[in-house]
Design brief:
14 helices, 323 residues, globular, two-stranded antiparallel ribbon, 2% strand, two-stranded parallel ribbon, mainly alpha
């Protein structure tokens, strides 16, 4: 490869692989969850959220992956945990690795020593509900909850197939071929990959011309009848994780015409492990077109609407005792 080709390959790698850390639902998806939740807050919860977030603003010097701060404090809060992920070393809090093929049961065995999303939600709920807690900690608890409830409802944040939650599954997304990272080919990292498209591309393609505010309005109206049932079912974080896991089984993996087998329960340090997982999945030539996108969008819409309503339930419950 000549010098110009190497330069172009390197530039492409920087664009594709030096992106923000994986954010379940991406910026617009997380913002949509926050906006749906706002529609279901009680006056007491709205007051609690506005006071805590307003009295403990974010560091103005913090680098924000999703752009500058907005005037809507919950929307602004929705992406903060990704902004501080490296600083706080809280990466494991964003997901829970339930292996494919597992069914309902205790989740403790899938929650590692550094934590997981279900445990993080319960811990942050406890901080928010404790009115004797430091106000900054309670404000951060809201920011974590807004984000983590969204994370839990992204199906690939509640499953693993020895593929790092789909990050080791290359997929062609419409006309975008999956490319190997030329800077570190030994790691077998590809983009687009399954996790990436579920984080961002599927939702943003479904949004079309909408912005998160309009999309939240559309989803809240579409799922108005279901919302009452979700609220009546109460707060059961572990059940939500299993629902998300089942969506990943059926709506993510089994939705491909090519069979993706269940892999041994292994956590990978790179996609080259597990008998070259990245390369093996690349050779399946998985592709997402209109059929997969249409079905996936329906799954994502339900998950986003559920996340918004359930986030409001958690905040409303906290406001009963935390004022």
């Amino acid at each position: 490869m000549n010098r110009k080709a190497w330069f172009l390959a390197g530039a492409l790698a920087l664009l594709i692989f030096t992106a923000p850390p994986a954010n379940a639902w991406g910026c617009k998806g997380h913002q949509t969850v926050a906006l749906i939740a706002e529609k279901h807050l009680t006056p007491e919860a709205r007051q609690l959220v506005q006071k805590l977030l307003g009295d403990s603003p974010m560091d103005p010097k913090l680098r924000r992956w999703c752009g500058n701060a907005t005037t809507d404090l919950m929307v602004d809060a929705s992406t903060w945990p990704d902004d501080v992920r490296n600083e706080r070393k809280n990466g494991p809090w964003h997901y829970i690795d339930i292996p494919r093929g597992k069914h309902k049961g205790e989740l403790d065995g899938y929650c590692g020593p550094e934590g997981c999303v279900t445990r993080a939600i319960e811990e942050q709920r406890a901080i928010l509900k404790d009115k004797s807690s430091d106000s900054l900690k309670r404000a951060e608890a809201i920011r974590y909850l807004v984000h983590f409830v969204g994370d839990l409802h992204q199906p690939l944040h509640a499953i693993t197939n020895a593929d790092n939650g789909g990050n080791c599954v290359p997929v062609k997304y419409f006309r975008h071929e999956s490319l190997l990272n030329p800077l570190h080919p030994e790691r077998e990292d590809f983009s687009p990959n399954l996790h990436q498209i579920w984080d961002t591309e599927i939702v943003e393609r479904d949004m079309e011309i909408s912005n998160p505010l309009r999309y939240a309005d559309e989803l809240d109206e579409k799922f108005r009848a279901e919302s009452a049932a979700w609220e009546a079912a109460g707060i059961h974080v572990d059940n939500w994780a299993w629902e998300s896991h089942e969506r990943a089984e059926t709506g993510v993996y089994d939705a491909f015409p090519e069979k993706i087998g269940i892999e041994p329960d292994t956590k990978l340090k790179s996609c080259a492990e597990n008998n070259h997982m990245g390369k093996r999945m690349f050779e399946k030539h998985l592709a997402v077109g209109e059929t997969y996108q249409s079905n996936a969008a329906k799954v994502a819409e339900t998950a986003l609407a559920e996340a918004g309503v359930r986030l409001a339930m958690i905040l409303n419950d906290a406001a009963k005792t935390a004022n």
